[in-house]
Every structure is written in C-alpha cells, then in structure tokens.
Amino acid sequence: MIIEIDHKSGFCFGVVKAIAAAEEGIASEEPIQCLGDIVHNSHEVKRLSDRGLQVITRDDMQKMEGTRVMIRAHGEPPETYELARKQNIRVIDATCPIVLKLQQRVKKGAQEMQEAEGYVYILGKEGHAEVVGLMGQTGRRARVIQNVDDLKDADFSRPSRLYAQTTEDPEKLKTVAAYIEDRYRAAGYDPATMFKAHDTICRQVSNRGIEIREFAGRFDLVIFVSDPKSSNGKQLFEICLKTNRRSYFVTGPEDLKKEWFTNTERVGICGATSTPQWVMEAVRDRIREMS
Ligand code: SF4
Fold first, then answer.
1. Which atom of ligand 1 is nearest to the CA of 99?
2. Candidates 3.40.1010.20, 2.40.50.140, 3.90.1150.10, 3.40.50.300; correct CATH number of 2-9+204-290?
3. What's the pLDDT score for residue 144?
4. What are the boundaries of each domain within the chain?
5. Distance CA 260, CA 121 (A)
6. Does 96 contact ligand 1 (Cβ within 6 A)?
7. Percentage of the chain surpassing pLDDT 90?
8. Contact 99 CB / ligand 1 (< 6 Å)
9. Is the beta carbon of 173 within 6 A of some atom in ligand 1?
10. pLDDT of 259-291, one tens digit each?
11. How far is the CA of 273 from the centre of ligand 1 (A)?
C-alpha cells in the first residue's frame, strides 16, 4: 500500500511562529501561560501542556499578577492588553502578522464608518477568538454575520464595510458581498459608493482549498486529520469529501478503522492549518501497522 502525507498540509506559518514562541517560553523555565488553546488541536495542546505550558482564561488573568502570558496567533482585543498592564503581566505576543494587519484594517474601517454613520460587518464565527479580537477593534460596534440570512434586517440606507475572518470560505465571502451590493441597488443606491468588501481571507487558507482538492483526487482513500474544533479543518474536510467520497475525518491514529482500508492501494493523509505534522505521521505509522 502506498501512503503519502500531503506536504502542504499542517501548520500555517502563523501557528509555526506561535508554537516556536511557546517552546522558547517553556525552555526559559520561567512559568508561562497561554490565553486559550494555542492551536485548535488537542494533541498539540496536550504535548505543550505536558512540557509546562498552562492554558488559562481571561477570568484567570484577573486573578494573576506579575507573570507571563502568551497571546496566540488568533490575537486578542485591546482590553486583554489593558488587563495585562493592570495586572503587571508580561505579554508574549504571538498574534499572527496577518491577523494583526486585519485588526488594523478593521479598526480603520470602524472609525470611517463611525464618522459616516455606517456599519461594519465581519463574516466569521461568533465567539471565535479571532472574531472576538476583531470586534474589540470596533468597540464592539461591528456585526458578526455567518451568511446572508444574518443581513435580512440590515439597514441599506447607510454605507458599510465587509471584512472576513482569515479562515473564511472565499466563495461565501463572494456570495455575501454580491448580496449586499444587490440590496443597495434594490434600495436605490450605487453599491460602488456605499460599500466596500475587503477580502481578508488568509492566502495560506484559501490556497489550501485548491491544493487539497488536487491532493484528494489522487488517492483511493483519504484520511483527513484534524481536531473537530478547527473551522479550517471542517472546511477542508468538506472539500476532500466532495472530491473523494472515500474520505475519513480522524483526530488521530486512535480513530482509524481497519475495514476502511480493504481493497485500497493508495492512501493520502492530509490535514488543516492546525494539524501537527507529528500527528499525521502517527496516523501514517498506524495505517502501516494495520495493513
Ligand atoms: S491561517 Fe493565516 S492568518 Fe491564521 S494564523 Fe495561519 S497564517 Fe496567520
């Protein structure tokens, strides 16, 4: 049986950078805590927690003083930095540079829309860490939308700006932008003067959709490795499944089933931007053992 791991799957550069910062922090032997799971992958969170990286919440931060806290790649709202200052907590900031740039763009857009009495829409998942960080840039005045249904009651007599969470689906962004333009037209306004859609989807994510489609089509069977909490993982698995009906979602080697591999010659292993290489390798080794 031929088993191949997709060399383009696995951590994006933002996550690589955050994990490197965590490992450096752990090596310095001074206690270090991470605000939330460093990556949406329980295997990697456990690996780092076994080495000493504790996961804390914002509520925990209220009770801490003079320690070190790491901000993960998803970023944080300004209030988190203020809280850290107040509690004399040293911040190790591993916010991905792409997310940082998006935060700045959203902040600027929110200021413009405040002056113009307009609206800011963020296409993303309510409560997702990155979205919480983006909302913080707007003083919580933006509206988080998941699809066009969330815009049915929106006001199209005022200008608006649309931004997307970095892991959003590019097709969904196009659909939402086209819907908003249509609604402006229907209300008698020129969308070009009233509205601007910003494609803020991370290219590391949007390119992966194309690459994974190509990869999944080359095998009899595809094992997609991800944590169910990863939104990027869910999206990429959907693409695998559409391309190759014999695609299976696993969190690690423990989920593999021997019967999947009967009459199979070529197996492809791939994963999300939050899937560690070592977990994909453990999956490959387990398949070898089973076959
Ligand atoms: S997906 Fe893109 S924006 Fe998000 S952490 Fe990775 S590199 Fe940064």
1. 3
2. 3.40.1010.20
3. 98
4. 2-9+204-290, 13-96, 98-165+168-201
5. 43
6. yes
7. 93
8. yes
9. no
10. 999 999 999 999 999 999 999 999 999 999 998
11. 8
